[in-house]
Design brief:
Layout lengths: L9 H7 L2 H15 L21 E5 L2 E6 L1 H7 L1 H13 L11
Antiparallel strand pairs: 1-2
Length: 100
């Protein structure tokens, strides 16, 4: 629901419209194309960050979090909170998916 309780929020609308499926396919294709290369991904979704060697969160031009997905999940309550929100919003577990 929106903050005012009047209707679905953007995540609910996106999930209802199949955004979830298309995004997953595009993410997997990008990861396949970038295999063996350095990728810089700028996102507000944590969906395929499990595939990355390193995640760097920038906030106000400063590094707020820095580490591997496993390390951040183990040591950062903020990362775990954001990951849980992203998984709930898109009704899927964050995983590493590469297209074949």
């Amino acid at each position: 629901m929106n903050g005012d309780g009047t209707g679905p929020n953007n995540h609910e609308i996106a999930a209802q419209n199949g955004y979830n499926v298309v995004t997953r396919q595009a993410d997997a294709a990008a990861l396949k194309a970038g295999a063996g290369k350095t990728l810089i991904i700028i996102t507000h979704h944590l969906a395929n960050l499990q595939c990355m060697d390193r995640i760097v969160f920038l906030e106000n031009a400063n590094i707020a979090l820095d580490g591997s997905p496993a390390e951040l999940e183990r040591t950062s309550s903020r990362y775990r909170t954001l990951l849980a929100f992203d998984e709930a919003a898109f009704n899927r577990k964050a995983t590493c998916e590469r297209s074949e």
